[in-house]
């Protein structure tokens, strides 16, 4: 108990619990995970809100992320400057969204951002290509990839502008039977 | 007053909703700060606005975690919201603050008025003031409620923080998830959930039956029914007696027969028989409720599924990756599977042989959106691929061969099903004959029933697997068939076992009748003992309904008669019939023993199969592959794969066994808790050490209801025999809490007659008349389908998934139960349906999304 109190103030913990889907214990666990990534960088006292960022290389090497083809995108989406370097707040945010408790629409919103590689608020053909290539580790030929992209746009593009808007994406993803259970990282 | 308050609140909510829409827009631009307009942050003085603002900020605070903002924004917004609420609530709460607020409002009204109308304004203010104050009352009341709410929320959070620490095996499951993806983990989550249910069942039976009996019931050895008969004492501690649950175990709280029949026990007068009956029913009721609740909740989370919308490629791309995977091997096989699935989809699209359905997402438990696929069409396609000969003659030959093979396979399956059922029936029959032959039984003979049942349940699925290879179906279809067959097998096993057992019970009760006659004749003929042993004998063999009362008075006499006449009695027993001992005639104990034995042996076989099929095979493959003539790892034995569907079915079967036996052996749930703990550890260890990730994509299945639907089905079918036994059979005369009654359920009417005031009895008499009973199930279904969960599930009507199926099934169950076909029922269930089908899905979804963002629960 005592050690917990020194990392965060009581108010901080309450605020974090309000802002994430975690319990106090999980927040502490996440903090320790975060701290373990860069023990010399991250202080053990967060009561003064130090401005610390853990570089992407370390975040991406977490066992939860290291085999994920989209790890770079995930960290970029959740980091402040889009460079993948994360503060503790970003870190908590990320795992909160990926937690089991997060609602479907929140997950869908962030999934859209993750698959939107060029951050233009639309998933265009290029984004799709990136997604497919990462997903299959480049094992599909270029024609196959473009065919798949074409089909995807065919299926989900409601307004036929050649790219998926957030609304198109939500329409599609909210109906996927296993989106909730797969878009989930347990910590 | 009320209406005005309501309308005010309504307006507030409306406004909040519109604010939230604003937020929805603003969050997309991720420009939070602009959306705080002046009147939200600031010092608006209109009390209604203040109130709305507070409400809005509170909503924001409650749901801030669901906003897609960065943590910094969230924290800032939270802090601001808290400040605003504090500030304004301070103004509005408490009498002082509220007066101050009223005064302030007055002042502002005055000051806004033009000086020229000052005189009139005096009146205006006096007219306005009560209105204002009255308006303020709503917030005041509300803030009090809100404080309660806040306290409550704080408490809930504390409780939640506390409870989370007790969720077992979190890390273990996580590890499995990262190795095998969400599919395999869903088995373990299901196992954990079952474990929870069994703990509750254990607490129920333990607290209300077992512990009272232990504390207040007559101690072991005090009465004939709680004493091991003399001729068995010598062997009561033998290992094989214990093993077959005889001896001391038979005469213990483990089984029905041990429980006393006194209507009240202990000083407090605990009504054990009544409790026994009610808990027995409560076990089923609780299981039903918890299952349906879970199903409703699940279907709420899995909004989508069965839509006809064709998003195959999108899902294949955007939902393909299982974010839980955290192991390079698993990641690799997942990638390979995704590539396969995309390719297969491509080619199948190109050939247009079958559209829409995936090639690889065949995991049985996933199957919400299964359509019947054109199997023979696939078959031809595959045959063409295999033979590389597009000629139509070859095609037809191949087709003919496959059809023949399939017919053969189905015949084989049917034969093995029939064989297994016959085998079980035969074994039970044989055990009965062996027991009647009255000779010393060997260990095998005592256990053969449960061993055979376990063997069948273990071997037959593998046999089906082999047979399925003959059929050459598409893997998805194969799995479906396999599941259906295994389910039928398990059900057939349990049912043939229970039917055979009940058959035996039948013959037992006939025997009992015979003994009864026998004994009375014997008592008549032997005049020497007649005077003294008559009460004793009577108690043992021919108790009458009023016996319970009489017994207490004759207790002392009986005690002495036992001590004085034990020897002659035992002798007498021997001379009459071997089966005279009180519990030998106890069919309830016998059924309980068989179920517990089955459960134990099933456990042993599970352990053995895990060791043999997974562990030793793994060892063999791992260490002998270097010096073997073919590649063990990739060809024949390989490493085992974790068969989710079959393992889940096994869990369902196991739980069914517990439900079936729980009434006759109150400790069965407790045993099952231990069994599940053991299984959890053993399985997770075996999975991590010996199994390899699946070659195919397994669709995650936590969020859908297939497992639960099977479990519900099992529960219903396992409840039937118990109910049947309760309704149909006369409880044993010499043992158990219901001995001497005509039917087990008579305990309820007896209690109503004797322990409730007379008026209650007459009321019950009216209430239980058909006029009232018949419509009752209707209400029941209505309540069931109107629990918050189900209602919410029903709200998301277009999904038309499990909850409705679950609720629908419950309805059908109730219908079956009550044997009634009231027209109301139909209209009711129909009334539930329409929202499910109409409503334009697309529009609904976009609005659903917006609404979900906007209206999170308001309190």
From TrEMBL, chain A:
PANTHER family: CALCIUM AND INTEGRIN BINDING FAMILY MEMBER 2 (PTHR45791), CALCIUM AND INTEGRIN-BINDING FAMILY MEMBER 3 (PTHR45791:SF7)
Annotated Pfam families: EF-hand_7
GO biological process: integrin-mediated signaling pathway
Record-annotated EF-hand domain positions: 144-179
High-level lineage: Eukaryota, Metazoa, Chordata, Craniata, Vertebrata
Coiled-coil ranges (or none): none
Keyword field contains Metal-binding: yes
Domain of life assignment: Eukaryota
Protein name: Calcium and integrin-binding member 3
Keyword Calcium among record annotations: yes
Key words, A-Z: Calcium, Integrin, Magnesium, Metal-binding, Repeat
Originating organism: Saguinus oedipus
Automatic annotation (TrEMBL), chain B:
Entries under InterPro entries matching the protein: TMC, TMC_dom
Subcellular location: Membrane
TMC domain sequence ranges: 586-701
Transmembrane segments: 184-211, 274-292, 380-401, 407-428, 449-470, 482-502, 603-624, 656-674, 706-727
Keywords (A to Z) from UniProt: Membrane, Transmembrane, Transmembrane helix
Predominant location: membrane
Presence of the UniProt keyword rRNA-binding in the record: no
Topological relation to the membrane, as annotated: Multi-pass membrane protein
The keyword Lipid metabolism is annotated on this UniProt entry: no
Pfam family, one: TMC
Family: Belongs to the TMC family.
Name of the protein in question: Transmembrane channel-like protein
Encoding gene per record: TMC3_1
